[in-house]
Amino acid sequence: MSIEDVKARIIEFRDFLINIDRANAIADALPDIAINLLTSIVLLLAVPIIYEVIFVTYYDTFTMTIIGVALSVLTTAYFIYVIVAKILRKIQRAGQDVTGRYAHWDRLLNEGLPGIIAILESINYDELIIKIHRGKLGYVVAVIVYIIISTLIAGFALFGLIFLVILPIFVFPIPTQLLTQYSIPISLTLGFALTMKLAWNRISESIRTLWMIDSITWELRWIEHDLKRLYRI
Amino acid sequence: MKVNVKINRGSLILILVIILCLEIIFLLINPPASHYIGELVNGSGTILINAPCGTIVRAYIELTNYGTTPARIYLPNNTVVILGPGQSAQTSLLIMPKAYVLCSSAFSGSIVEIIEGNTTPPIMAINTATIRIVGDVFTYVNYWVIRL
């Protein structure tokens, strides 16, 4: 293996380290994401409960309709705000600063073999393995959260488009059973299919990255070992 | 005096998960939907609205006189409504369970029962609102039940 090959591998490894650090940053943000998501779901489910309890005890159809619509609109708006403005942004922003941690590697790589050895020696492999395991969890959860949120957004958009715009224009009146029983499952299934279609490359790339990280780590340990042996450093 | 209460994120997630589970259980037991029962009472009859232990019942009752003679409706608050032929009346009742009834006294009947004829309803260990009807009256009861 020539020095240029080693340099190329190290650059490749730097990209993996950046990915791992990003995944760790996502793992750090997971409790906050969970709190935001749970709070919005708790509020969303509280609406029908509050509506039902007040309706039964107070029973005023007109007032209850106004309260019900107001509560539904507010909680749905809050749910969309939490998902789009807080959770997705948090996932996208997680680990944006990690690239800077490896900026000095370019200078070290230009120094040749001593620089490569310095890079390899600066890596704490035990710590790296812990980071990889933690990062994998963060990565997997981030991919799942990403798929769920994208499915929900696409599902609601398709629900509005199909059942509130297209069907009322072409099929009127819409069969009640279709609207009440099957509209949400149909919308979510279509939303999931659309998400997988649009984000398939990104998702498969993430899965491939996860598979490759382990092998690269062990390969680099061998490179470090071989270099030390060959050049007696 | 200022009191600072700090909850760590793990405890907060646990509390939210517990609240979420309770909400899901509540919605599974009490789906936000009403039930209805409609029946034509010929001559005389009784509407029984039962609130067993641990339930709150809201009943919306609509009565229409289908007969040719005036009908009399005896409401639970001791008022009597007289309906002329073709006339209708509505009332809404909230029935809570009796505080002293133990939840172990199981209730196996229906929440709302419409009994035709002069049969005297049995005395039950639950809170029951009784509406007595004299006349040919179509009775429509729309009710919501909350099981706590």
Could you describe the 3D structure shown?
- The complex is a heterodimer of chains A (233) and B (148).
- Chain A has 233 residues and is an all-alpha fold.
- Chain A has helices at 3-58, 61-93, 105-110, 113-122, 125-170, 176-231.
- The longest helix of chain A has 56 residues, at 3-58.
- Chain A is elongated and about 85 Å long.
- Chain B is mainly β.
- Chain B has a five-stranded antiparallel β-sheet with strand order 5-4-8-2-7, with no helix packed on it. A four-stranded antiparallel β-sheet of chain B has the order 1-9-3-6, with no helix packed on it.
- In chain B, a hairpin with a 5-residue loop joins strand 4 (71-74) and strand 5 (80-83).
- Chain B is elongated, with a radius of gyration of 21 Å.
- Chain A binds chain B through residues 31-32, 34-35, 38-39, 41-42, 45-46, 48-49, 51-53, 55-57, 59, and chain B through 9-10, 12-13, 16-17, 19-20, 23-24, 26-27, 30, 32, 56-58, 60, 92, 94, 144, 146.
Question: Would you kindly provide a brief summary of this structure?
Answer:
Chain A has 233 residues and is an all-alpha fold.
Low-confidence stretches of chain B: none
Main sheet record of chain A? none
Helix content of chain A: over 70%
Average pLDDT metric of chain B: 81
Alpha carbon gap, first and last residue of chain B? 37 Å
Shape of chain B: elongated
Estimated structural class of chain B: mainly beta
Shape of chain A: elongated
Number of helices of chain A: 6
Number of domains of chain A: 1
SSE arrangement of chain B, N to C:
HEEEEEEEEE
Give the oligomer, counting copies of the same chain as homo and different chains as hetero: heterodimer
Give the N-to-C terminal Cα separation of chain A: 18 Å
The biggest beta sheet of chain B reads: 5 strands, antiparallel
Portion in beta strands of chain A: under 5%
